[in-house]
Amino acid sequence: MNNYDHSSLAAARPDFAAIAAWIPEGASVLDLGCGDGSLLRYLKQARNIRGYGVEISDEGIEACIQNGVNVIQSNLESGLSGFENNSFDYVILSQTLQATRHTEPLMQEMLRVGREGIVSFPNFGFWKNRLSILLGNMPVSKELPYQWYDTPNVHLCTLHDFESFCAKYKMQILARRVMTDEYTIHFVPNLLGSMAVYRFRRAH
């Protein structure tokens, strides 16, 4: 991948750069719901990681192979039983959390297979989403591009929702970055941030 591809990916998906900032050189990474393998390709360029992707769609598998990404075809909802405990340094769920039906078991599996987990997801508490609902419509945006009738998203959440979830299931949040486009949001992030990225591990 050339530098143009690298910068283009970062511009299109600002959460990629946020995730890369937390991953050390040469780490082992498992990317769940990896799509066309863009994140793994990005991390290999940025951090020289050793990685595998898990993807269910035939189109995604084919794209991963074309992108030179190691990929396994599997349904995340069936769990990660094919992976041993602590097989990876990091397990990533990038822009996929909201489309999973069995969130708690999958998050627990992430922390069984990996030493740490990283997730990114659209913040349903973002002010534009609240305004859409106030005006009587489900939100449609860059982060939530689907109409209500064809969306794959089944578990949308806010920052507060996710942090309460982690506390309930004894997952320690190590770092958080909230963004709108490429800008990091520090002031009232649950209102002004359109996307969140979290790094977490099992609480001791």
Provide a quick synopsis of the model:
The protein is α/β, with parallel strands linked by helices. The chain has helices spanning 3-12, 14-22, 38-47, 58-66, 103-113, 127-134, 159-168, 189-192; strands at 28-32, 50-55, 71-73, 88-94, 114-122, 171-180, 183-184, 195-202. A hairpin with a 2-residue loop joins strand 6 and strand 7.
Description:
The protein contains 8 helices and 8 strands, in the order H-H-E-H-E-H-E-E-H-E-H-H-E-E-H-E. Helix 1 (3-12) packs across helix 2. The protein has 204 residues and is of the alpha/beta class. It has one domain: Vaccinia Virus protein VP39 (Rossmann fold). The chain is globular and about 45 Å long. An 8-stranded mixed beta sheet has the order 3-2-1-4-5-8-6-7, with helices on both faces. The model has no long low-confidence stretch (mean pLDDT 90).
User: How large is the share of residues in beta strands?
Assistant: 15-25%
Structural class: alpha/beta
CATH C-level: Alpha Beta
Low-confidence parts: none
- Can you tell me the overall shape? globular
- As a whole number of angstroms, the C-alpha radius of gyration is 16 Å
Distance between the termini: 39 Å
In terms of quaternary structure, what is this?
single chain
- How many beta strands in the DSSP annotation? 8
Can you say what the CATH homologous superfamily is? Vaccinia Virus protein VP39
